Structures are given as structure tokens and as C-alpha cells.
Amino acid sequence: MNNGGFFLYPEAGVEWVCYYRAMAQKAHFIGIAGKGMSAVALLLREAGWQISGSDEGFYPPVSDYLAKAGIAFANGYKKENIPADADMIVIGKNAKLVADSNGEVAAAFASGKKIVSFPDVLHELTATTDNIVVAGSYGKSTCTALLAWCLTRAGKDPSYFIGEITKGFAAHAHKGGGGVFVLEGDEYPSANWDATSKFLRYNARSVLLTSATHDHVNVYPTHEEYLAPFKKLIAQLPADGLLAVNAGEEHAFALSKNFTGTTVTYGMTQEAQWYPDKIKYGLRTTFDLMHGAAKITELTTELLGAHNIENIVAVGALLLEKKLLTPQELAAGVASFEGVKRRMELLSPHSTVPVLEGFGSSYEKARSAMEAMKLHFPGRRLVVVFEPHTFTWRNGAALYRYDDVFVGADKVYIYEPASQGATTHAQLTQEEIVSRVQASGIDAEPIVDADAGLNRIRTGLRPDDCVLLLTSGELGGLITSLPSLVEEKFPYVH
Questions:
Q1: I need a surface site. Which of 16, 84, 176, 265 has the fewest CB within 10 A?
Q2: 3.90.190.20, 3.40.50.300, 3.40.50.2300, 3.40.50.1220: which CATH number matches 345-489?
Q3: How far apart (Å, rounded) are the C-alpha atoms in residues 205 and 324?
Q4: 0.90 exceeded by the pTM?
């Protein structure tokens, strides 16, 4: 297959291999440290390509994945990073990666070499596989990772592309030989020069649609604009494809009505075709997976929260409907799955006070994390440390979300809003956010300085607390320092 310099071909039952035997194909990635870019770099490396890359700031585990794969990368952007014999240059979707302000990007476009986005590469890599695309405003990473894990655990050797770091995997991407490719589908534009939503490039044959609540307001100002790429994704499904949809999320369910092929529904109630029954919450939660009136299997999981039960049901519905796994193989996969980093991850294993991180990039994710804390740690005081890191939280139009997002919390510390892109939208101030939360009856206070905030939190912590860190950023380093503080102050004595 030739895509203007991108030469790969499939052989039946064999991984993608390099077309040119005389010389190895070489690709250079500008912005390689991003999770999506690094994942695609790893996929191409497994396909036999020589890979180089550049970025600003390399951190584990991504830097470790690249190094282990033998991928050389330069810290900083300069035109000299581009190998003279590169066959293809992959450029990430980042505000810093534009020719007007980035010399390496400018040199790439001036080189005459083939320029592609990482979704372009995935488009080629998924041309002949049975592709499962997980899409939605929340639940994508967990569902994608669990799908890949269950298939891997059962010996099916799937290919996978996961947007977040997952426990148990050697990396967040793998080109397998099993014929199934599981991809986390992102509705964001593919590149700075291509507004096509990423997931529209992934040749979906099955879609797991978790939700379609309005998100990413910086890219999609209205809900209708946000829904448009999801409508296209469903429209692209082949007639013999499968759509698994969350019956409990009204926007996703409404979108499913546009698909004329096979649709299966999942949810938390019997209104869905697939649902859980007899849930027993604990550090290990058990429930029956139901299909209509029939119990299919009992499932056990260490994942916390009702939202993760919903994610598990979604994965079970898709895998069993496609007959990719037996109920027994599904149960074994779910029981052994350790979860996705930053998704209700326990950060204080050596303390009697649990500190967990939730990925609080949106209202729905924040609420799910808080409800999980109340569900699994009843009787404890809930302390929340929150960072309004995403555009979704920092935009003036989101101020009303602060009226009830922290309902159930006993104390809320609010870190200063992130500053990137503040000039492109109506940025909320920390004072506005704190005042709004306080007006809702929640005990809230600001954190301006991370060190001072740490001392303030230390003073207020009690042995009967549980702590939830809500951010898609780093909370000024509190993600690391606060769990260590808690383990020191409230050590677990064996």
C-alpha cells in the first residue's frame, strides 16, 4: 500500500512488514513524547521501521518505552534533528508544533518529505484488521485498556493503541498478530493542518460508545458541533459492524438510532440488554453480568466505583457479542486487570489514610470519582484537592458546574487554574471558582503555592479522612508530595 511514501503491506496471518527490502523505512516524529505519538512510534518500530524523534521534556514511563524499543530522541526542537534519509515525518497536534514558530516543523515542511499525522499512520496500520474503536466523553481509556487486557490475557495477541498508561502492559501500544486492533478513539482534530477527528481515520468495524456529553469546549463550542464527529463515526461503520452503546447516557443512545446495523446496549439497569446484578462493593467488588434475564458469569474486580462497573459491562457486552472471548476468559481478564494510571489509582499503599487520584478533566469524571470515594470509603471524611486544568473547567461558561460538582465532599482545596491557552477563552480566576464553590455550601479554600498548600493540608488532615486528587495536570507537584506526606503522618503498621 502506497500513501505517498508510506509503504506497508499485509500478509494473511502475519504482522505488517516493511515493503522495501533493500533499505529500512525511516520515520521521524516531531513531538514524540506525547502518549499518542509515542504509541504510534512504537507500533511502527514493531513493524520494522527505524524511528527517531524530538520533543521538549521526556519523562517515564514514555521515555523508558522509547529507549527500550531502541528509539533515539532529541530533547528540544531544531532542524538538525531530522535525519537526511527520513522517508516520512510525523508531526504531533500541539500548539508549539507549527511552522511559524517551530524551526524543526518549518524544516520538515520545506524538506519535500512526506508529512503525516499519527492518525494517518494508524489509518494505514488498521487497513485490514478487525478494528474496535472506543469513543466517548469519558470511560475511553479504561474500556480500551480492559478490552486489550482481556484479549491479551486469553492469548489472542491483539494490537492495541491506548491513550493512557496501563498497569500490566509493557507499553501503551502493541502490534499483535491476532487480527483484532483495539483503539482509543479521540474526537480531537488529527493535526494542526487537518481538522478531521482522529477516530474517523481508524477504519472502525466495531464501536464502543460510552457517552457523548459536551466536552472540549475549546474545539467544539456547542454540543451540536461536538456531536458531529460522533455521527460521522457511526455513519462509517460497515453494515455488518457492531455498535455497543451506553443506554444510560442519553446523547450516546440518541446517536445509536442512526445506525442500521447491529446495536447492543449496556448500562447499570435492566433497561439495557447487558447490565450488572447483585453488586457487592468492596476493595474487591463482585457482580453478576446479565444478558436479559440470563446470568452469563460472575465478575470480580479491583476497580473502584459504579462507573467502572459500567465500563466492565461495556467491555463484556462487546467481547461476548463479537464472540471474541468466552465468559470464563472474560472473567479471568476482568479479575486480573489492575487498571489505568491516574484512574482511581491508590497513591498511599503504606498509609491508613487512602489517597487516590481521579482524572478530573470533566464534570462527569469528577463526579464519578467522588461517588466512588463515598461508595468505597463510607464513614470517612472526604478531602478533595482539585486543579481546574482543562479548558472544560477553566472556561467561563463552566462556572455553573461548580454549584454541585463537590457535593459529598467535607473539604475542598482548589489549586490555581492552568495558564496555557488562557487568552483564547473566557478564563475563570481561582477567586471566581472558590467563591462559587463556597456559595454552594462547601468548605473550600484556595491553594496558590504548592509548598504552603501542602502544609495547610497537613494541618487539616485527620486519621478518618480519605483524600481524592482531581486533576489532569500535576497539581504543582502535590500528586507526588501529598501521598508521601500522608504515608509519613498516618503510616500503616503491619
A1: 84
A2: 3.90.190.20
A3: 14
A4: no
